[in-house]
Every structure is written in structure tokens, then in C-alpha cells.
């Protein structure tokens, strides 16, 4: 698939917001990504969105029981393509979510501190799917900004160090 232009992405976001006027651009961007790259079901992708304050960088969680995978998405929509640089702390912090299913109870409990109730339930779904059902965990940091090669490599290395199935 070719890399879409910022105009194509903006057009898709505008279309999504026409049918879902309550979504902000960031959430519409994540929804576009889910539909374009993960699943095409309107209902399941829409219900995957968290879209709340207190989501700790988790903008969507999509559980694909057919493929036995859990998809966790963080989206960063900028009005330009490749201009804004993503922060190392944001990218590496998101990559650390790979440990979510495997955290010990005290760490898991600490993670839940100040996490919104909707995201808590979705994180429980991630943990159950990965631990009990051995679903693969897939993380997607999706941005219209740019991310340096060193930050990408650090995030990949962090994600590859996790326990559990890949």
C-alpha cells in the first residue's frame, strides 16, 4: 500500500467526522488507521477507540479473535506530514506497553492508578487475551509526524525484549 498524503488522510478524517461528529481529529485519525490497516468493520473499530482523558497513551484497543491478536494503537495527528518530530519519551513509553500483559500484580495495580474506567476494561481484555488465550500483542504508534531512526530502533528494541507470544 502506498503511503497516503496528508490531504488524503485529512479527507478521510473529514469523512469519518461527518458520520461521527463527536470525534476529534486525533480519534478520527486512529479510526482511519484501524479501518485502513487493521479491520474494516465500522462497529468494531469504532468501539475499539478509547478517546478519553486518562488513557495513558492508549487511543484504541482492537481484539481480533480470528487472527488471535490484540492491537493497541496510539495516534498523533499533526496537520502536516513529516514536519513535527515525535518525542522520544512518548514513543518509548508507548513501546513499554508491551509489558502490560506480563506485569506483576503491584506494577499492574500501579498502572491502573488514574486510568479511565473504559481503558481499564480494555486493558483487562488485553491482559486476558495475551495471558490466557495466548493472543499476540501488536503495538502501533501512528503519526503524521516524524520519528528519528534512533527513537524507532530504541522502541523496537524495547518491544522485542518483552515476554509472551509475538
Task: Give an account of the 3D structure.
This protein is of the alpha+beta class. The chain has one domain (6-160). The chain is built from 7 helices and 3 strands, in the order αααββαααβα. The model has no long low-confidence stretch (mean pLDDT 90).
Provide key terms for this protein.
3 strands; 166 residues; alpha+beta; single chain; 7 helices
Please summarize what this structure is.
The chain has 166 residues and is of the alpha+beta class. It is 47% helix and 13% strand.
Helix share, percent: 40-55%
Largest sheet entry: 3 strands, mixed
> What Rg, in angstroms, do the CA atoms define?
16 Å
Query: Which class do the helix and strand fractions yield?
Result: alpha+beta
How many domains? The number is: 1
**Helix and strand sequence:** HHHEEHHHEH
Strand content: 5-15%
Q: Give the low-pLDDT segments.
A: none
Work out the helix count: 7
Helix-strand blueprint:
Elements (H helix, E strand, L loop, with lengths): L5 H14 L5 H14 L3 H7 L11 E5 L4 E8 L11 H8 L9 H8 L4 H15 L4 E8 L5 H12 L6
Parallel strand pairs: 2-3
Antiparallel strand pairs: 1-2
Amino acid at each position: 500500500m502506498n503511503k497516503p498524503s496528508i490531504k488524503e488522510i485529512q479527507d478521510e478524517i473529514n469523512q469519518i467526522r461527518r458520520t461521527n461528529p463527536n470525534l476529534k481529529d486525533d480519534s478520527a485519525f486512529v479510526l482511519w488507521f484501524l479501518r485502513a490497516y487493521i479491520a474494516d468493520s465500522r462497529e468494531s473499530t469504532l468501539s475499539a477507540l478509547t478517546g478519553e482523558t486518562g488513557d495513558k497513551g492508549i487511543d484504541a484497543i482492537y481484539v481480533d479473535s480470528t487472527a488471535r491478536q490484540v492491537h493497541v494503537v496510539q495516534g498523533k495527528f499533526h496537520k502536516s506530514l513529516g514536519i513535527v518530530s515525535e518525542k522520544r519519551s512518548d514513543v518509548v513509553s508507548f513501546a513499554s506497553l508491551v509489558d502490560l500483559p506480563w506485569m506483576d500484580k503491584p506494577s499492574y495495580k500501579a498502572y491502573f492508578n488514574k486510568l479511565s474506567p473504559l481503558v481499564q476494561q480494555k486493558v483487562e481484555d488485553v491482559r486476558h487475551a495475551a495471558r490466557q488465550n495466548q493472543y499476540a500483542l501488536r503495538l502501533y504508534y501512528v503519526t503524521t509526524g516524524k520519528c528519528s531512526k534512533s527513537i524507532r530502533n530504541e522502541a523496537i528494541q524495547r518491544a522485542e525484549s518483552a515476554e509472551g507470544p509475538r
